[in-house]
Inverse folding.
């Protein structure tokens, strides 16, 4: 019945949009791109001079504007770009507009558009290629409040935004340790995050991205997850151009990457396809990687009112697992691996596809309707130190959105009303071998926890967001989403002999709907500066593994974690040519219903008893000392990003219980600092470019010491990283574009880590052989990065037909 009402609502909105479809006699449609990067320009204001008619470009840089009276020009403007007037009186069906940047583009002030009601950072292709461009961490970790880690040099990535990760123990269960939780990830508006809330990125080709948007904190348009959302976009072809591009990159420890891409655009459609192949030998034993990617994206302008966009990807990823090491090996800078991981040939192998189609139809200059359908499938085979997992995953879903835009001299309104639904199914098989049994394993090796389960999850949401431009340059954005989640699991193993029994019951849990409101009030000081205050509520449902206790029982009483975020901030550019740009945000995130693990009669389970408070400050500032394309030294731009984090467990207690008595507290970590979070992180960068084509990008990153245990008795040491890339990029005649570059990471040979485990105390983490830890009973807790400087070099050659 609930779905029936949703369909009725959208049918009514469809009729309403259709009623206004013929209101405009004269319509112009087009695409706006950055003249340097060819990235879509989002939220640019497109207006008809002498009228109140205006609109914004969407996430693909597309606009449509109309009027009852004939017009022959439009104006396009956005802070950070030069104002541009375009003649449209020649009757073209579509226009491609290239905007000229007028200053630094990273973190430019964003005061327009529904989607930018709080802290949003956009990384363009130049930001994404400050280093080798092969992984996302190098770029994402320059953004204040964002930390991306990985289990291996090229796999097992997860993103932490403003210190939030579901469950008070930071997701120490095997499935959550190396995958993303608590945020939504999209690529070309297609969800990568599945319906269980899990995000796996081993199969994402980061080297071909054109743009990345990071939404910090919950947003009703992106699932209202507590941490926020990350939107990845493939590159858009240059207008009216067909090209082929070949790229080769080689580097330390056997790194070799090739990319071959073809792009074409003719005004009526555009198409891009890329094949990438990458190998890496690793700096530790059993630390190699091999990846193959195929990605394609297209846009077809079926008419001035309709655009059909498609995305497809296939990937095969094979990542060796070298395992964790202890502090003695890490600080001794030993390139060693866990012997059990090596002996069991531990690795993660993923083969996947992902596809989606989006149809946008503009009924008028006020209404447009956007429908997306998507699907994905993957196989995941993982061998680890004490067993294996084998998963088969499928994911299907769709999203509908009706968008409304109205512009008058007195009031402007932008609104979105939509619904989304997604279903994920998983068949998971595995076997856990007892720790005292060393690999290689055989069929007769004693097992402790074999598994063969069928899991499913269904999520759906009704969402809306409205932005009102008020007098005196005030704007108000309000929104919310109503979120529905159902999980189910069926254990196919039966009895003491662990035989398969297909009629085992499916245990499920449907959570009570969660409504998550949001609001933001913005004051535009002038064309270059704004201040804002925002409120947002988010949630994160438990995973299937958290709902299922160690005895295989599902706990239907668990609730999603919820959070409220308060934020104030300011964004702007200063100077006659906007040389100085900045963004400052102060936030307070209060997380309740925190999941913590407890034990009763040797059965482990999760319960909602924790609370956490994250207080933080984030600053980005950049100054373009020189920004003149005609000068010999065309760009000199230093910049800095700074993050301060004061994150505390307000209530974090663990208990054990037995049938013969009441609960007994085993530990109390309340008022301790949140593990794995460094209180101070900053980046300092310098970008240089010359008219001749030479360029330099240098970045120094400092990461403060971070607690590795909930009791705060043990910390990881602080470290600093220096990286740089130099290159030469130039048009060679009419047809060729050459980019030759070389660079290095960790040029100061610092001792740092890709990932750390956290735990109650150091004894449960450290190995028994670690001389710095007494009575260690763990497998180690540090996944190290290369101890010495690593280098890379590459060449990219593009031919334009």
């Amino acid at each position: 019945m609930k779905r029936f009402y949703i369909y009725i609502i959208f049918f009514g909105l469809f009729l309403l949009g259709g009623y206004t479809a013929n209101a405009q006699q004269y319509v112009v449609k087009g695409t706006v791109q950055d003249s340097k990067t060819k990235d879509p320009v989002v939220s640019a204001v497109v207006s008809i001079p002498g009228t109140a008619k205006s609109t914004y470009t969407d996430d693909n840089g597309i606009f449509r504007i109309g009027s009852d009276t004939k017009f022959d020009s439009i104006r396009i403007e956005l802070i950070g770009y030069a104002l541009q007037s375009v003649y449209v009186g020649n009757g073209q069906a579509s226009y491609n507009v290239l905007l000229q940047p007028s200053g630094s583009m990273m973190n430019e002030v964003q005061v327009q558009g529904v989607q930018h009601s709080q802290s949003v950072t956009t990384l363009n292709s130049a930001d994404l290629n400050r280093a080798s461009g092969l992984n996302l961490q190098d770029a994402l970790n320059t953004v204040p409040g964002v930390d991306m880690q990985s289990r291996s040099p090229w796999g097992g990535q997860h993103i932490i935004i403003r210190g939030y990760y579901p469950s008070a123990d930071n997701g120490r269960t095997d499935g959550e340790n190396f995958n993303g939780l608590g945020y939504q990830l999209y690529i070309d508006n297609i969800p990568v995050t599945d319906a269980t809330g899990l995000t796996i990125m081993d199969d994402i080709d980061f080297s071909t991205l054109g743009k990345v948007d990071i939404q910090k904190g919950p947003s009703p348009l992106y699932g209202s997850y507590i941490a926020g959302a990350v939107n990845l976009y493939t590159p858009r072809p240059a207008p009216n151009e067909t090209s082929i591009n070949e790229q080769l990159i080689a580097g330390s420890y056997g790194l070799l990457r090739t990319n071959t891409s073809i792009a074409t655009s003719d005004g009526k459609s555009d198409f891009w396809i890329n094949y990438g192949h990458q190998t890496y030998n690793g700096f530790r034993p059993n630390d190699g990687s091999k990846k193959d990617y195929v990605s394609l994206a297209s846009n077809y302008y079926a008419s001035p009112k309709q655009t059909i966009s498609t995305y497809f990807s296939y990937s095969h990823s094979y990542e060796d697992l070298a395992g964790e090491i202890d502090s003695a090996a890490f600080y001794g800078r030993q390139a060693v691996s866990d012997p059990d991981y090596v002996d069991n040939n531990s690795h993660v192998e993923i083969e996947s596809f992902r596809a989606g189609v989006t149809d946008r139809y503009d009924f008028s200059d006020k209404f447009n309707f956007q429908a997306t359908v998507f699907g994905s499938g993957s196989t995941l085979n993982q061998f680890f130190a004490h067993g294996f997992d084998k998963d088969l995953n499928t994911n299907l879903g769709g999203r509908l959105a009706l968008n409304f835009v109205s512009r008058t001299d007195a009031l402007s309104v932008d609104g979105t009303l939509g619904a989304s639904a997604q279903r994920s199914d998983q068949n998971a098989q595995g076997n856990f071998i007892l720790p005292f049994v060393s690999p290689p394993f055989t069929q007769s090796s004693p097992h402790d926890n074999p598994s063969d389960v069928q899991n499913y999850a269904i999520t759906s949401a009704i969402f809306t967001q409205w932005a009102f431009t008020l007098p005196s340059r005030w704007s108000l954005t309000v929104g919310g989403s109503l979120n529905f989640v159902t999980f189910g699991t069926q254990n196919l193993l039966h009895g003491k002999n662990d035989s398969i029994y297909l009629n085992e019951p499916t245990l499920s849990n449907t959570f009570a709907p969660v409504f998550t409101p949001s609001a933001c009030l913005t004051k535009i000081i002038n064309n270059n500066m704004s201040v804002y205050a925002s409120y947002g509520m988010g949630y994160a449902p438990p995973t299937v593994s958290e709902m299922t206790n160690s005895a295989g029982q599902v706990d239907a009483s668990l609730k999603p974690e919820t959070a409220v975020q308060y934020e104030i901030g300011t964004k702007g550019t200063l100077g006659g040519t906007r040389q100085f740009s900045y963004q400052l945000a102060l936030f307070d995130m209060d997380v309740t219903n925190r999941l913590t693990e407890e034990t009763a009669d040797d059965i482990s389970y999760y319960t909602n008893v924790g609370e956490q408070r994250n207080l933080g400050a984030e600053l980005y500032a950049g100054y373009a000392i020189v920004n003149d394309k005609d000068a010999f030294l065309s760009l000199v731009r230093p910049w800095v990003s700074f993050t301060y984090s004061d994150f505390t467990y307000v209530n974090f207690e663990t208990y054990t219980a037995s049938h013969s008595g009441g609960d007994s507290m085993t530990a109390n970590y309340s008022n301790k600092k949140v593990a794995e979070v460094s209180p101070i992180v900053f980046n300092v960068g310098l970008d240089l470019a010359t008219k001749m084509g030479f360029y330099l990008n240098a970045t120094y990153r400092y990461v403060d010491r971070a607690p590795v245990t909930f009791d705060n008795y043990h910390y990881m040491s602080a470290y600093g990283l220096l990286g740089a890339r130099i290159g030469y990029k130039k048009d060679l005649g009419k047809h060729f574009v050459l980019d030759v570059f070389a660079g290095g990471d960790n040029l100061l040979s610092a001792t740092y880590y890709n990932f750390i485990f956290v735990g109650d105390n150091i004894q449960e983490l450290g190995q028994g052989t670690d001389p710095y830890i007494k009575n260690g009973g763990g497998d180690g807790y540090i996944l190290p990065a290369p101890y010495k400087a690593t280098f890379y070099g590459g060449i990219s050659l593009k031919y334009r037909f």
Notes: The CA atoms of residues 655 and 665 lie 4 Å apart. The two ends are 56 Å apart (CA to CA). The longest strand covers residues 387-407. Confidence is low (pLDDT under 50) at residues 1-23, 103-116, 170-176.
